[in-house]
Amino acid sequence: MARLLVPLVLLIFVSHVSVAQEEGVEEELHIEGYYALEFQGFFQNPQDPRQASNNSSLVLEAKMVSEWVYDDNRYVFNAKPFYRLDESDHERTHFDLREFNLLLVNDDWDLRVGTSKVFWGAMETVHWVDIINQTDFVEGVEGEDKLGQPMINYNFDTEHGWFEFYYMPYFRKRTFPGIEGRPRNIPFIDGDEAIYESSKNEWHPDLAMRWSNSLGDADVGISQFYGTTREPSYVPVISDGEVVLHPFYEIIYQLGLDLTLAIDDWLVKCEALHRHGQQPDIDFQMVAAGFENTRYGWLETEMDLGFIFEGLYDSRGSNPLNPYEHDVALGTRLTVNDINDVIVVTSLIIDLHDSTTVFNFEGSRRIGDHWKMVMEGRSFWNVPSSEFPLNSFRNDNYFQIGAEYHF
Amino acid sequence: MKLPCSTLLLVVLGGGFNAFPLSTSADDDLAARKGLEIATESKLRDTGYEDFVTTVTMTLKNKQGQSSTRKMTVKTLEELDKGEKALILFTSPADSRGTALLSYSFKEEADKQWIYLPSIKRVKRIASGNKTGSFVGSEFSYADISPQQLEKYTYKFLKEEKYQGMDCFVFERFPKEEKNGYSKQVIWMDKEHYRPWKAECYDRKDKLLKTLTTNNFNRYKDRFWRPTMCYMENHQTGKSTTIEFHSYKFQTGLQTKDFDRSVLKRLK
Question: Is A283 near chain B, with CB under 8 Å?
Answer without folding.
Answer: no
